[in-house]
Here is the input.
Amino acid sequence: MAFVVAVAQRKGGAGKSTVAATLATALAAEGARVALLDTDPQKSLVRWYAERRAQGGGDGSGRAAHAPRPIAFDSPSGWRLGGALDRLRRGGGVDFVLLDTPPHDDTDARLAIRNADLVLVPLQPAPADLWATDATLALAAGERRPVRLVLNRVPATGKLAPQIVDEIARRRLPLLNEALGNRSAYPSAFAQGLGVVEAAPRSTAAEEARRLARAVAALREEG
Ligand SMILES: Nc1ncnc2c1ncn2[C@@H]1O[C@H](COP(=O)(O)OP(=O)(O)OP(=O)(O)O)[C@@H](O)[C@H]1O
Ligand SMILES: [Mg+2]
Here is the structure.
């Protein structure tokens, strides 16, 4: 049964598209069958997937010597999402569906959240990201969907991230232990239509991506 993960966060630029692509590629690299759906009219992942196909990846039709693992891709707009997910579920050939969602637009984000088995909320360790998270948590609570926060772009040093982690703990919000650091490997892989596990498999970023993928896979097992 496909496990549907909506990556949602009202705050723009928190890392939704990066986390969706990073997770999709890391899960696929571990042998899972993955579909990625871009529901954001900005279409960041549409561009990403076009680059991926140019690299010989994507749907598996490429002929590159070290083609990245195939990932099914679609970009259904708002009301088409339910049908696209039904087709994927009926087809039975997918383990994980990752949904990238738009910022600011609660209608489209709500649709994605409603269809999700897990809502993953990336946030940068900054007050504005934590404040914006409340709106996304309220959406998920309204739809009675399980939620996990994931810290993204965590700086290597400084006091802000520990302060935000303390605040999250104080409020008893469900934060994953697995976080992504602020690393150029992420935008660099993204620009090539790849994930960090593919573009830089030995990097610290790739290790972070694999850990996050395993955490999400474990939540699927908990079901
Ligand atoms: N872990 C990271 N390390 C370094 N740069 C990152 C990281 N995550 C995201 N970025 C960069 O931050 C910017 C915003 O990331 P991204 O596009 O994934 O956010 P988003 O939430 O999808 O944005 P939007 O709300 O506009 O859809 C991009 O330039 C991206 O490359
Ligand atoms: Mg985005």
